[in-house]
Amino acid sequence: MSDLTQCVLTPEVSTDGFAPLGVGVHRASTIVFEDAAAYASRGERGHEGYSYGLYGTPTTRTLEAKLTSLEGGVWTFLTPSGQAANALAALPFLAAGDHILIADTAYPPMRDLAQTDLRRLGVEVEFFDPQLPEDVASKIRKSTRIVWCESPGSTTMEVLDLPRIVAIAHEHGALVGVDNTWATPLNFKPLKHGADIVTEALTKFVSGHSDVLMGSITVRDASLIKPIRSLIGRMGIGVSPDDASLVLRGFETLGVRLRHSERVALDFARKIEGHPLVKQVLHPALESFSDHALWKRDFLGSSGVFSIVFTEEASTHVAASLDALKVFAIGASWGGTRSLAAPMSVEGFRSATAWNGPDIILRLSIGLEDEGELWEDVERLLECLDVRTGGVASDATPKTARRG
Ligand SMILES: *Cc1c(COP(=O)(O)O)cnc(C)c1O
Questions:
Q1: What is the pTM of this model?
Q2: How confident is the model at residue 46 (pLDDT cuts 50, 70, 90)?
């Protein structure tokens, strides 16, 4: 064989005895076939076979298999982001004239997709109160195809009574989709509570290092595989094996990272709760939280993310006070090793329910830094907020923020 041909062809080497723990990164667009007959019948390989890089490689299949097993589903699709997973979980099942019901506290880009694109395509979009399954019962129609849930709700953490919502939706022939990013499959398993589709922003806790974007869609029933797979294919959507490999690596430490972050987050939430400038801490594992009983009934644990509602007056100083932080970084997204603080606007992202607090609330994501140093940072923030608000807290109860 000529040198030029040898440069192109891949020589066979033995893999006998090579048993690595890490998952190989298999990069591929083209997948070659043994013979002409195998090529001609490639369409019959189904969703489990390999036919083209876009439809999967052993690297992406490994990540999909891990998620399918943890979620208790039958198949998983990977998408280039968590929001892409939400969009591609809903789109295959909707046509003009259909109706979708969406939890009022769903991830804002999902609301936006519904209000902008689904409406443009002729889908009727309606939102429901996440804390009132009766609202789903009264709004559901014959034409409802999907009831879209997120539990707990983005930023404000309302927990849904998923089994009740599932019962109502299924009685009317609608599918139930759940964005499970906050809990991850370790702390909540929506499919086991009757949901048909679960999505995860793997970008957050599962990958865990703030350096990759990915999402997943896992389905409970095999009949849902084809509609999703074929739409994803027609839209030309896939993920790179390199990115999948990063997520697989992060996944191996998810258990210990999540347990650590949830413990520290709950401890901080408890300590912050009594502060005079704090109206409410929104964390489902707090006994004081309105939906605590539902969380306790259905969830296996909490997460490293929660929000703080300050008094009206203090809330106007939240953004400026973030400059007092030395360990927390200021930024969106969450679930990485670095703790993050982000002021979040609430009012503009709901339409079926009323928000009675100040528009800006503070979301904290607890990472893996020393928890004592992180707490000192929270104290600095609260003190800065207190000074800007006129010293209310230090006059009233001098050491509230310093407990623990
Ligand atoms: C971040 C997030 C998403 C979107 O994930 P991306 O990968 O950033 O697109 C979806 N749902 C929830 C609840 C999220 O927090």
A1: 0.95
A2: confident
